[in-house]
Amino acid sequence: MRKPRITVIGGGTGIPVILSSLRHEEVDITAIVTVADDGSSSGQLRSAMKISPPGDLRNVLVAMSDMPKFYEKIFQYRFQENDGPLAGHPLGNLIIAGISEMQGSTYKAMQILTQFFHTTGKIYPASDQPLTLHAVFQDGHEVVGESQIAKYDGMIERVFVTNTYNDDTPKASHKVVKAIMESDLIVLGPGSLFTSILPNLVIPEIKQALQTTPATVAYVCNIMTQHGETEHFTDRDHVAVLNRHLGVDVIDAVLVNLEPVPQSYMNCHAFDEYLVQVEHDASGLAKLAKRVISSNFLSLKNGGAFHDGDRVVVELLRLIGESTP
Predict the structure, then answer these.
(1) pLDDT for 97-138, tens place per residue?
(2) What integer pLDDT is reported at residue 33 of this predicted model?
(3) Do 247 and 211 contact (CB within 8 A), yes or no?
(4) Closest Cα to residue 64, out of 125, 117, 11, 10?
(5) Which residue, among 221, 233, 301, 232, has the nearest Cα to 261 in the 3D structure?
(6) Which GO molecular function annotation, any one, does this entry have (predicted)?
(7) Model confidence over 148-202: pLDDT tens digits?
(8) What is d(CA 75, CA 78) in angstroms, rounded to the nearest whole number?
(9) Taking Cα atoms as reference points, which of 78, 63, 2 lies closest to residue 33?
(10) What is the pTM (predicted TM-score) of this model?
(11) Beta carbons within 10 angstroms of residue 208's beta carbon
(12) Quick one: CATH architecture of 5-323?
């Protein structure tokens, strides 16, 4: 019998938590990763080399690899701020950028690196071209660039992407649509709603695939609201935004954390973008999703509130078991 096929879509630091737990299960994993990041090291390399930003791909590669911890430390090493042109760049970003240039494709670079690091599963950039994220706010103002969105004081109405270096319609990378259509379960998030998850979903081919896939679509709702993106959002609001961007009610199941985050625990300096815990709207959520899985998914570490990947994966595997004849 074939392994269940799970496709995880997102970016940032959220989906690596899920992927690192999933890789120990008997499942066939595909990660589809955003390429709209334009800040920090990723933004500099993308601008200088006109390649897809490597940062989110780097974190996913580490999460899905069985590389020894020492190799991981090397790959994740970030040059110091007094290192001139290299300052702030993780070594892994430079490696991904170099192989992307050598191969003429970030998609091809990731296929080489998944073999090199013995990755469990497949990693696809959402698009083989760098994308620019646009946010239209409720007052009509438009902000261009993922790194600029949180700086504008307002509520986001919608986001969309364009190709950064030409006027063509953004296209999904090779095999991305096929992976979505052949999945048993698609997992969205966790991660920044407007800047890590939606930049993938608004690529027209990916949007259409999600509308038509026979797979169960699950959303792992964020634990904390985020400055500049989801202030005052309930879990119901997160799902409503996803469905609005996808055009139909795509979300079948929502995983929400009910365990309280201790008020004094969060390190507001290290995690200054996160505000308060997402409020649970049970009745509102039940109207938008066929299934609501509410439990303790909380992991407190290093002054931050994260998902417990192992607990989330238990519920994801249960969803597959329920949907498989």
Answers:
(1) 999 999 999 999 999 999 999 999 999 999 999 999 999 999
(2) 98
(3) yes
(4) 117
(5) 301
(6) LPPG:FO 2-phospho-L-lactate transferase activity
(7) 999 999 999 999 999 999 999 999 999 999 999 999 999 999 999 999 999 999 9
(8) 9
(9) 63
(10) 0.96
(11) 15
(12) 3-Layer(aba) Sandwich (3.40)
Tokens read off for 236: 């119901």
The domain spans of the chain are: 5-323
Tell me, what's the pLDDT at 264? 85
Residue carrying structure tokens 């996803």: 242
Residue for token digits 């989110």? 56
Phi, psi values for residue 143, rounded to 5°: -110, 135
Residues 86, 92, 96, 102: is their CA dihedral positive or negative? positive
